[in-house]
Design goal:
- By secondary structure, this protein is mainly alpha-helical.
- The protein has one domain.
- The longest helix has 26 residues.
- The protein is globular and about 40 Å long.
- It starts with a helix and ends with a helix.
Length: 91
């Protein structure tokens, strides 16, 4: 496999996770974003959670690598989902 093909294989499950995150968020909050400001506020909230998880992990690294990676992945998935919602709902 080429490096590009390997990357695509790693990308596919991530995209599926983001899709599921979007659909779950839409079930919980079915209304589209009312404005770019609302979408940005939600995206910013998720980004701050991702930033905090990354910084917390760097400060408190104590053998919980898997734990932090899972939480970073979860927060990154939520950031990606909200960015996709902005693309779909506001453009």
């Amino acid at each position: 496999m080429t490096p590009e093909e390997i990357y695509i294989e790693r990308l596919k499950p991530c995209l599926e996770e983001v899709e599921n995150e979007i659909l779950n968020a839409k079930k919980k909050y079915p209304s589209d974003f009312n404005s770019g400001h609302e979408g940005l506020a939600v995206l910013e909230e998720e980004f701050i959670e991702l930033r905090d998880e990354i910084f917390w992990g760097l400060k408190n690294w104590n053998g919980l690598e898997r734990y932090h990676k899972n939480h970073i992945r979860e927060e990154a998935r939520q950031v990606a989902a909200m960015a996709f919602r902005i693309m779909v709902e506001l453009t």
